[in-house]
Amino acid sequence: MLGGWKYANIKDGSFAEYFHVNNANANLTPIPDSISDDTAVYVCDMLSTGFMGAEHANIPLGGTVVVFAQGPVGLMATVGARLLGAGLVIGVDGVSERLKLSRHFGADVVLDYTQVDPVEEIRKLTGVGVDSAIECLGAQATFEACIKATRPGGTISVAGYFGHGDSVEIPRVEWGVGMGDKVIRTGLCPGGNVRMSRLLKLIEHGRVDPSPLTTHQFDFQEVDKALHMMETKEDGIMKPLIIFPVS
Amino acid sequence: MLGGWKYANIKDGSFAEYFHVNNANANLTPIPDSISDDTAVYVCDMLSTGFMGAEHANIPLGGTVVVFAQGPVGLMATVGARLLGAGLVIGVDGVSERLKLSRHFGADVVLDYTQVDPVEEIRKLTGVGVDSAIECLGAQATFEACIKATRPGGTISVAGYFGHGDSVEIPRVEWGVGMGDKVIRTGLCPGGNVRMSRLLKLIEHGRVDPSPLTTHQFDFQEVDKALHMMETKEDGIMKPLIIFPVS
Amino acid sequence: MLGGWKYANIKDGSFAEYFHVNNANANLTPIPDSISDDTAVYVCDMLSTGFMGAEHANIPLGGTVVVFAQGPVGLMATVGARLLGAGLVIGVDGVSERLKLSRHFGADVVLDYTQVDPVEEIRKLTGVGVDSAIECLGAQATFEACIKATRPGGTISVAGYFGHGDSVEIPRVEWGVGMGDKVIRTGLCPGGNVRMSRLLKLIEHGRVDPSPLTTHQFDFQEVDKALHMMETKEDGIMKPLIIFPVS
Amino acid sequence: MLGGWKYANIKDGSFAEYFHVNNANANLTPIPDSISDDTAVYVCDMLSTGFMGAEHANIPLGGTVVVFAQGPVGLMATVGARLLGAGLVIGVDGVSERLKLSRHFGADVVLDYTQVDPVEEIRKLTGVGVDSAIECLGAQATFEACIKATRPGGTISVAGYFGHGDSVEIPRVEWGVGMGDKVIRTGLCPGGNVRMSRLLKLIEHGRVDPSPLTTHQFDFQEVDKALHMMETKEDGIMKPLIIFPVS
Prior knowledge:
CATH architecture of the largest domain in chain A: 3-Layer(aba) Sandwich
Order of helices and strands of chain A: HHHHEHEHEHEHEEEHEHE
Largest interface: A-B, 34 and 34 residues
Number of strands of chain A: 9
Helix content of chain A: 25-40%
Number of helices of chain A: 10
Oligomer: homotetramer
CATH class of the largest domain in chain A: Alpha Beta
CATH topology of the largest domain in chain A: Rossmann fold
Mean pLDDT of chain A: 94
């Protein structure tokens, strides 16, 4: 469990110029010439995690999907829902800049939870609830909303990281008292060279361009500042690009 | 949601000699001569619900399965896990008579939760946790134990009815903080004549004999007593058989 | 088997102003105001059949897909492959007008089989072969090419109708001598109101516009001429629209 | 394609006392003390291949299955069909000794194709045809019979090796003219330590005992004789056990 996370977060050297990759044969793939490094870097995590959120959501062709939270992972889940054939994609967030990006990345409808009750609006739009809800924040409120917004027989796909508390609560009645055939699925960013090369193909052939996620850019010596901003989310930062000095 | 439940519990006439069946063409199936009515009656709910618990559990061939609670549904989930290729089936309950039936119906190992900590024992038996856990009670304690007893990437299948409280709690850490790829699935007794005839085939060809579930028998005029005993569970009752008078 | 075909082709009245629909409750769905009738009519067959071809093809997100034959069903399979997340879609036909439509409907690469050997070209483009091949003609040559063009572990999805001969031949070696884990799947246009309303949603929200398939238009009294042209395929006909007189 | 076959058949040393195993970490698993070596050896191929035949067959719980050919792989497919919940298993062969073993390993009905037309008998037993047919010989006649014996929407799973001819023929009409939604799936013996340990668990807990497959036993110096007999199938040989001398 959490092997990929350990690889990226605990293994020494992930910020060094050269980095040891386990089972390189199975994990490395060439970047096509037509894709710049600052775009390609997104396939390792944001694309793979966000798309996984959509892949785990059992979206029927033409189905309805809501994505809760439109940060980098949520935005890529929005793209993923479009790529996998959703007929209606609803993006939910409370920051207007993110809702604008949500539209840019393919949401048909965006809901600002500071203005409306998303579950109520989703009910109005879909009647019985969405086929699939994707949780991209890792919070009780959004998890709960996912259960409530999903139709019987639908799927709740969790891409967020739940960092606090002893437990996460499933609202009993909206879960169908254990009989609503609602699937709750979670996952961790999938890797491997077959997946990486497929994700690169999606960029190469114009299905997705993640570069609008890069709102800030830093030299390597400013990496601490970048990490700090990722914590504070100040200045509307989505993702910082760190440039390694080329000698 | 819960359509089948409404059919059985709210629609008038379910205790009458003749009963209107919606879409009879799709819902009725002949009972083979070799199966007696008091055995056949189990396919409508106990077999279908218990087996559904196992079918939803993504059991790999040769995989490890735990079934929490060994009442009628749990016992049929135990049978279902065996029928679907589990290599190790663990039955958990606190009543010794039920654990005896658990062994009878195919559990390789039974655990009495009044004597041992089932999660701890399951860890000892399986190392990383079971591939699949089936919840057949509808209670916080067993639901929680299912999450804890399941390996990363495993499945928790809920066949129990959760009747109380505002929410059901997922233990956050053992759930993999939202990243353990543990699937939580629920469901309601599936019906239809294709399924019914398949379940009858399993009885007909000796794969399962549910008749040990019938611990008590009543005439129709005693139906209230039977229903009362199902609530109190007195006298070790599993399932009462109600005999309609034949004129 | 072939129930849907019998409904459309043998049941009396399919050309009448009013037509009896079996299980209307389960089969009829409202057409949204924003969709014109001449567009909506495509969801009944071309979209549903072509998309089924893609849905049966197990396309991995970012995967490679070839669609053999770019008639109306093949073009909708091309759209379907895009909608379901293909990273590279290859359209094959021998008529330049159809290859132009293939590009219009989302093929990244088109191959004219009168100019090149498609299987050879597909190998050059993909190395090991495509993940998924969709057969939309119903002919030995295209079926065979699908087997040859697909990688081990890939899927061949058949949407074409095979009208002639005693048998269809699987090329033994390229099939992996029965061990290449290549799946061959077939199907018949799926129906029902849930599917219809999802397909309409895809039109409503701009995912697909099938109207370029309509190359000709006739009044109802010319229906014989239209049917004749569908047989001869003269004048580059794709699909004729038949207008019923409104009194 | 066929990587596993190359490993077992072309790589040097597969008959030596010590043998190099690629990615040993992922491919080796301990044999439990309770399982003798001459039983354990079957998990590497016969169990894994035969069970794969059943796993690929999409057997519904309580469904009907036919297994064509009851050699070692076919017999293990018969066991696999039982383990995966089939409600009726039909074994087909032309050798009475094998039909006896077929019954021993779990077939409910056996058909001797030298006495009856299996497809006709299967129709009598099932009406519309079986849910799943498993091909365990690798021949045109059995492949064809599988297509013919399977209901619309059913699955044909191929576990046999097809060694001859340019093509394998699908009977067009019984295939539903490309529209019967019959899936044809193939595969090659799956490996890896997770699978091996699961198969061992099935032996350990009494789900299957493959030892009746061993009809003959030889010392290592007689290996040529054993291989010769496997070609001629003389003396009713199923599988020979080769004993390595222990010094």
